[in-house]
Amino acid sequence: MKRLILAAVLALAFATPALANHCPVYMKQIDEALAKNPQISAEQLAEVQKLRQEGEAEHKAGDHAKSMEDLEKAMGVLGVKE
């Protein structure tokens, strides 16, 4: 039982930095796509910008799972591949 708990703790410890490292990459991909003036509606653009800002704030707050979720949604609207 102790080994199982230890394995879970170690997996979480190694997974969190991995998620944290992806957030900036996704933010950069979103920024690059926005710089190309994508052909999306004003509503979609507003949604992407909102999700991008929220994703960055969540990343800075340490909530990398939520950050990734929001950034992936923004990338989906833009049609950006991971």
Question: What do you see in this structure?
Answer:
Helix content is 84%, strand content 0%. It has 82 residues and is an all-alpha fold. It contains 3 helices and no strands. The chain is elongated and about 55 Å long. Helix 1 (2-35) packs antiparallel against helix 2, helix 1 (2-35) runs parallel beside helix 3 and helix 2 (42-61) packs antiparallel against helix 3 (64-78). It starts with a helix and ends with a helix.
Q: What's the SSE pattern?
A: HHH
What's the total helix number?
3
Choose one word for the global shape: elongated
Q: Evaluate the radius of gyration.
A: 16 Å
**Whole-number count of domains:** 1
Q: Determine the fraction of residues in helical runs and give it as a percent range.
A: over 70%
Query: How large is the share of residues in beta strands?
Result: under 5%
Span of the ends, CA to CA: 37 Å
Number of strands: 0
Unreliable residue runs: 12-19
Structural class: mainly alpha
Mean pLDDT: 84
Largest sheet: none
Summarize the structure.
This protein is an all-alpha fold.
Looking at this protein, list some descriptive labels.
elongated, 82 residues, mainly alpha, single chain
Describe how the helices and strands are arranged.
Elements: H1 2-35, H2 42-61, H3 64-78
Helix pairs in contact: 1-2, 1-3, 2-3
